[in-house]
Write a structure and sequence with these properties.
Layout lengths: L14 H10 L7 E4 L12 E2 L9 E2 L3 E5 L4 E3 L10 E5 L11 E4 L3 E5 L5 E5 L14 E2 L10 E3 L7 H9 L4 E4 L4 E7 L3 E2 L9 E2 L6 H7 L3 E8 L3 H9 L18 E5 L9 H8 L3 E5 L3 E2 L5 E4 L5 E5 L3 H19 L8 E4 L11 E9 L2 E4 L9 H4 L3 E5 L9 E6 L9 H10 L2 H6 L8 H4 L1
Parallel strand pairs: 5-6, 13-16, 13-17, 14-15, 17-21, 19-23
Antiparallel strand pairs: 1-12, 2-11, 3-10, 4-6, 4-7, 5-9, 8-9, 18-20, 20-21, 22-26, 23-24, 23-25, 25-26
Helix pairs in contact: 1-6, 4-5
This protein binds ligand LQZAQKY5 and molybdate ion.
Keywords: Magnesium, Metal-binding, Molybdenum, Molybdenum cofactor biosynthesis, Transferase
InterPro entries: MoaB/Mog_dom (IPR001453), MoeA-like (IPR038987), MoeA_C_domain_IV (IPR005111), MoeA_linker/N (IPR005110)
Enzyme class: transferase
Amino acid sequence: MTEAPGQGHNAAHTWHEARQRAFDVAAPIPPSPVPLKAALGRTLASDAVAIQDMPHYASSAMDGWAVNGTGPWILVEPGHRLAPHQASPIVTGGLIPPGGKAVLRTESGVITTDDDGLPILALGGAAKPGEPRNGQHIRKAAEEAAEGDVLLKAGTMLNPAHIALAALAGLDELEVLGKPLVRFLLTGAEVVTQGVPVPGKVRDTFGPQLGAVVELLGGIAGEQLKVGDNYDDWLAALQDTEPEPAEPYAAAEPPADVVISTGGTGRSGTDHFRRAVAELGGRLLIDGIAMRPGHPAVLAELPDGRFVLGLPGNPLAAMMALFTVGGPLLAALGHGKLEEVGEVPSGSMIDADPGRTRLMPFKLVYGLASPAQHAGPGMMRGLAGADGVMVVPPHGVQMGELVPAFPLPWGRPLPSPKSAEGKQRKAPARQQKKAPSGPVDWSALEA
Ligand SMILES: Nc1nc2c(c(=O)[nH]1)N[C@H]1C(S)=C(S)[C@@H](COP(=O)(O)OP(=O)(O)OC[C@H]3O[C@@H](n4cnc5c(N)ncnc54)[C@H](O)[C@@H]3O)O[C@H]1N2
Ligand code: MOO
């Protein structure tokens, strides 16, 4: 029997082709201004420039009195021009009045009376000799930046201090590189979002973490919509570019750049995904990948420019499809690059599986990558304890051979193969000989 594309061995794309295609089909989202609150972690698209001097007025650095000339000083109302030998009260950050030449700190002055019984300010308390010098305790205008100075260079990845600097400069928005907004469509009538599921029901593994993974892969996690197995609900959810906000009176999100659906990718039952994409006039870009798990993954583009990524329902399969297709797609939309695939030395001999790439979570043991136990398509224990994912080619892997691999979005980078080889040499010979040829149980190592 001939299998249709997407049915495993004859899937339209190899693993390498699929990730390259997911990167190639998307163009970077153009830069746009965003409010400061939304700018954290974004990349500045154009220089941020001081629109006026910073500070834009001379102010006091201390609580005390603005003074002109030497004391004693006649006190005048705050805000008035100070003539020589006049002073007026001022607080930290207060505007230096015209004629103000220095600030005398509260602890360096005393209010007393002159011969006529009128109140005057005189040096006293903690005053040091020569106090107040001209300009003392005055924050001069433009001492941080002059109008037109570049405060932040294009290309800066914005951190909280950058955002505070922009606010200090009086900016309300920053021009940042585009970043894809992702909305989620979690399908399956058997999926429950709380508590212990009864037989026939399963807990939703995606809702609590998929958004975070999308953010690690360079996207902005938007709303999650749960739909059952009804085709009309599917279609409506895909059609709806701006779903109702979750909370009353909250503003609706702007249209998403990517919709990620989970479940319903299989062709065996009712094929809602492909039917809905076709009905909306979209086109399939990737229809199945010759890999396991995750082979039914689908990528489509709708006429309005949104990408729809269909992840299989099996939890591990979905994560592998997300790393394979979602990562490159989000990188391309977000001005990133296609991550290079790394390499790790395999700690096991892995048999051939003609026609498909196997994605195997692995743990590094003495610098060697050992495939995880509990890595079936519906399991999560293997990935939960993994250091990365091996990309095992169809012809298999020899023990000690370098095998393509990638790190986890939330994990550490892979060690360079050189350092792994070093460790490999240092490992006791007996242990090398004993390295298993199948999945390793690391539970003892994790204690
Ligand atoms: N006759 C065939 N059956 C299946 C094939 C096939 O080629 N021929 N492929 C299998 C593979 S491989 C995968 S992967 C799945 C793909 O399934 P779907 O994407 O259509 O997803 P569902 O059928 O809706 O669910 C599959 C599985 O995943 C569970 N699931 C769904 N959503 C969640 C969730 N949010 N959290 C946790 N688990 C979830 C669901 O309960 C099912 O157990 O098809 C195979 N079958
Ligand atoms: O793609 Mo399915 O994941 O092989 O389980």
